[in-house]
Each structure stands twice: as C-alpha cells, then as structure tokens.
Design goal:
Distance between the termini: 40 Å
CATH topology: TIM Barrel
Structural class: alpha/beta
Strand order of the largest sheet: 3-4-5-6-7-8-9-10
Radius of gyration: 18 Å
Number of domains: 1
Low-confidence stretches: 200-212
Length: 300
C-alpha cells in the first residue's frame, strides 16, 4: 500500500467558478493498459486531477479507471482537450460529445482547446466558442486553452470571448515563460505546465525530446535536492507550485506517481527558487505553437 501524501494538495480557484487541484496526473503517450493502471495508482495515492485529451486516444481508459477506482466522481477533476482536426463549429460539437461519451461522463471539469493554430485564422476562436456553449449547458464546469501565447490570448479577448480559466503550456525551469505567467496572473488565468519535469535545454520536435542537457541531471537541482532531502523531480515540482503554476506530470510507475505527489510538506527557500530560475535557457523542448497548423499533426 502506497502511503497517502503527508499534506493535502492545494486547490486553485478558477474563473468559471470551480476549483482545481494544483497537481494532477498527465496521461500523454500512455497505452490503454498503462493509462488504467496509472490512473488507478494515482487515485489510490491521493491524486484528484487527471488530464487527458482526444488526441491521446486514451479517454476511454481514463473513464474505465475512474469507474473502477471507488472514488466518487465529484471528487475527481477531469480535464480533456479538443483536437485541432475538429475545430469547425459542427465538428467541434460532435467531437466534444464524443469525448464525453468515451470518458463515460455527462460533464468534464475542464475542457481545453488544444492548440491555437494562428495560421488558420479564426479556427481556434470558433472552437473556443463551442467550449463556451458546453460550459453554458453544464457539460464543462470550466473551459480554457492550451499552448496559447499572449498574442493568442489577446485574440480571444478582442473577439469578445470569455477569459479562459486555464492555459496549459510547455513550462519548466529551462523554459519558465515569465511574461506569459505575469500576463495570466493579472487576468486571473491559471497557468498549467505540461511536461513540467521533462524539459531539455536543446530544441527538438516534441515535448521533452530536445537535444541538450536533461533537466533532472542539472547539478543545481542535485544540490538543492540533497539539502532538502528530496529528489530533483520533487524540487522541480515544488518550484512550479511555489511559482503559482499547476502541474500535470506523467508517470506510469506507482512509486514515481506517489513521489510526485509528496511535495506539499516542504518549502524551497528564496535562494533555492532563484537558483532554479537561473536554469532558464529560453528554449523550448516541444514544438512552437506559432508554427503548428492543421497539417502539423495527424492522428492517422
């Protein structure tokens, strides 16, 4: 039996009126079998946020894990995302209904537009409008966006869309997105980090797959980890939460899933936070959202 976390996961109040745990489990690139096992282990360990997407092709597995977990639906915050293949208004409505059906839910807690695709004109704005409809009719407790820059968020504002509750983006010590975090904080948007401990100091074609030093091998993190008696991964996750960022780290290993949760019973000093800040390389590990368009990714 994995012990529960020593301290409960804090929640963040969202603009749309609900609250979201600050830390959850991401299930990107997990098979159905891995997803069911990981979600089950996470819920057993005390997680109450699960982050999936239509493009991950494991919404059904998430739904099965939720139903067999013994945890009440109302206790679990479920996020999914609308894929860019489905950004037309009618297609988006069908795709959102399909996501709910695959999850086996009549509502999700957070529905996100997955990419901004600025080269495709108003496509993302129209997709976000459909998510607003879902919020209005109760099928999404909150709505938001993913991979949006300040410019993308400004397009939503100028278009008269409601302010997103969440913007999920690549964010880690190598790429801390200070300006975006400041912009979001001023507007009440929660910033959530995907691949929060998987960053690379080089550039590459996918999340955490760049060419360069691996974040968790950084001597700075090793030194802090030794001082506080934690792992480098726990130090990085703690850095995120003390900077006000929500995190959805991925793992398929029960012991790592439990370790990632045990970050709320220690604190990094201002000096430690500044040392982690100093790892900023200004470079992404994943794709630049400004370059993503309808032909960039295909689900097959």
């Amino acid at each position: 039996m994995i012990p529960p976390p020593a301290t409960a996961v804090p929640t963040l109040r969202l603009r749309h009126g609900t609250s979201m745990p600050q830390l959850g489990l991401g299930v990107w690139q997990m098979s159905d079998t891995e997803t069911e096992a990981a979600v089950g282990a996470a819920l057993d360990a005390g997680y109450r946020l699960v982050d999936t997407a239509a493009a991950y092709r494991n919404e059904e597995a998430v739904g099965r894990a939720l139903r067999t977990s013994g945890v009440s639906r109302d206790e679990v915050f479920v996020t999914t995302k609308l894929w860019l293949d489905d950004y037309g208004a009618d297609a988006a409505r069908r795709a959102c209904a399909a996501s709910l059906a695959r999850l086996g839910l009549d509502r999700v807690d957070l529905f996100l537009v997955h990419w901004p695709v600025p080269a495709e004109g108003r496509a993302a704005l129209e997709a976000y409008r459909v998510l607003e409809e879902l919020h209005a009719d109760g099928r999404a407790s909150a709505v938001g966006v993913s991979n949006f820059s300040i410019e993308d968020l400004e397009r939503l504002r100028v278009d008269g869309r409601t302010t997103p509750s969440v913007n999920q983006v690549e964010l880690h010590p190598y790429f801390p997105q200070r300006e975006l975090r400041e912009y979001a904080w001023k507007r009440g948007i929660v910033v959530q980090a995907w691949s929060p401990i998987g960053g690379s100091s080089g550039s590459g074609g996918g999340a955490g797959m760049g060419r360069g030093a691996t974040l968790l091998a950084e001597p700075v993190l090793a030194g802090i980890a030794e001082r506080v008696g934690r792992s480098p991964a726990q130090v990085v996750l703690r850095w995120h939460v003390q900077r006000g960022v929500s995190v959805v780290p991925k793992s398929v290993r029960p012991e790592r899933i439990a370790e990632n949760l045990r970050i709320f019973d220690f604190t990094l000093s201002d000096t430690d936070l500044a040392l982690v800040d100093g790892l900023d390389s200004g470079r992404r590990g994943g794709p630049d959202p400004a370059a993503v368009n309808f032909s960039t990714f295909r689900r097959g």
